[in-house]
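Backbone shape codes
____________________
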Amino acid sequence: MEKLLNEAIERYCNHFSKQIVRVNEISGEAQILFRKILFSSILDALSRSVYPHEENRNAFTLLVKNFGDWPDHNRVSLPHLEKLLKDNTDVAFEKLRKIACERLKSWQHPMNTISLDCDPILEEIAEHWPEGRKLIIGNKKISLDWLTHLQLLYSHRNFLFHEFRTPGYGFEFEPDDEPYYHELSTFADEKSRGVDSIELVYPVKFLENLCTNVLGGLKTHLQENKINPYNSYTFGSYWIEQLNL
């Protein structure tokens, strides 16, 4: 029985390992977009093996958090925080509003990328976040954890899947394999320069590495806990999943 289990885990992991290689073979004008979509799809598929009963956002983010070996996943995106607080005038957030604004000003490094280790960790911002408070933007209630890179990665995934594009206006500078920010500027003339925005970029190489890390950590988890990943999926002739039970 244990031999059959180990063979199933090996077969499952080998399948996705081969898919990562195949995704990297994609070339052409739209290769970055296509590869990002497919790497995100691989993460989606892998999440089912360990979190089959979680809704999609939770399954995806738990997979990345627990198996992705991504040290910056728990950092709060400072540009997103500053914009959120700027658009909301709740006086309870005034102290945090000033902290975010002052810290973001220190980022001004023209023409250089800014790594995610410049972002504050979640706990640092939580100290100044009014307890139990959420900010409402439009018709959406935003809590602090929605501003972490773990949650923003899921937002990135949604743009890829549902709108066939990456969010924002960032550029990829190969061969970057870690997420970063860069300034997007306009030049009225040779002497006049203005910063329009700070753009967040999750490079395609980062997503590839994340898939590889997740797969390695997941394999160890499945083996140590004697979990057959195929038990989390439903197979059969019918496209309505429940009909195959």
